[in-house]
Specification:
Radius of gyration: 33 Å
Order of helices and strands: HEEHHEEHEEEEEEEEEEEH
Number of strands: 15
Number of domains: 3
CATH class of the largest domain: Mainly Beta
CATH architecture of the largest domain: Distorted Sandwich
Shape: elongated
Largest sheet: 8 strands, antiparallel
Distance between the termini: 84 Å
Strand content: 25-35%
CATH superfamily of the largest domain: Glucose Permease (Domain IIA)
Structural class: alpha+beta
């Protein structure tokens, strides 16, 4: 019975309010006072700690505060990010130089009184207008000879024809690591600006959308010609399983800036065998 009374008295004391006052030392008068219980003081302390934790979490998430801490980011990580940014800039400069070279070559043709080849540039693919530069009669004759059913024709062989696909690049960027089945890389890895758009290479149906520690957010598409394409390390996927997509439709976005070391991976499969994406798509 005495134990019960002690517990009851303790429980009553932690909820009983005490008077907390601020007294002026000169006049010995109260300038401020309030009533607090031990439980209220403990809850106030917990609330203050929670607010401080939330503020620190916001500073870490939305400001470069962690970069100022010694040892948080190693020199190797910073060097890798700097190298990827430099490669992206070099790739852009190379494209502009190629455009300037084509422009200068066409100017020379115009000065010489010749008809320049008009090209329409979409991404990295250059297609020429055959109406401006029509094929010659000899070229047409040679093409008919090579496309017939003779022994050495282009379409002759063992009966197994190479699969063709009209595809676009899954993302704007540069190929950082190329296809190598011997080392376990069954596709390519691409470097790009953070949160770049990742698009479907061709029409198809989304057959899988999942996440794993190794591949991050992953989207898989079954295309109409039997090719199976896989998009790994997305920061976010905006399609769902069973969704019908068309070529160039956005599937998600590449890794954010804080996860730049997770490069976008792209794979192509057919009949359970990996295909080299650079054989089918111009990157």
């Amino acid at each position: 019975m005495k134990m019960f009374e002690k517990i009851s008295l303790w429980w009553h004391n932690i909820f009983r309010k005490r008077r907390v006052a601020i007294i002026e030392p000169d006049t010995n008068t109260e300038s401020w006072y309030t009533h607090l219980s031990p439980v209220a003081m403990a809850m106030s302390f917990v609330a203050m700690v929670s607010i401080i934790f939330a503020v620190l979490l916001a500073l870490v998430a939305y400001t470069p505060l962690l970069d100022m801490l010694p040892g948080y980011r190693t020199d190797a990580t910073r060097s890798r990010q700097t190298l990827i940014s430099a490669l992206i800039r070099v790739d852009s400069l190379e494209r502009k130089m190629n455009d300037m070279l084509i422009y200068n070559e066409n100017r020379i043709l115009v000065v010489d009184g010749k008809m320049p080849a008009i090209s329409s540039i979409k991404g990295d693919t250059v297609t020429f207008d055959k109406n401006v530069v029509p094929p010659s009669a000899a070229d047409s004759l040679f093409r008919r000879q090579m496309e017939n059913d003779r022994r050495y024709a282009l379409n002759a062989g063992s009966g197994q024809q190479r699969t063709t696909i009209s595809a676009v690049k899954p993302m704007e960027g540069i190929v950082a690591e190329r296809f190598n089945a011997k080392t376990g890389l069954f596709g390519i890895r691409m470097a790009s600006s953070p949160e770049s758009q990742v698009v479907a290479i061709a029409d198809g149906t989304v057959v899988a959308v999942d996440w794993s520690p190794e591949g991050g957010n992953t989207v898989a598409i079954q295309h109409d010609n039997g090719i199976y394409s896989v998009y790994r390390n997305l920061s976010a996927a905006i399609v769902t399983k069973g969704h019908r997509v068309s070529g160039s439709e956005v599937l998600g976005y590449s890794a954010v800036e804080s996860e730049a070391e997770k490069m976008f991976e792209f794979e192509m499969w057919m009949g359970g065998k990996p295909l080299n994406p650079e054989t089918y798509i111009l990157f």
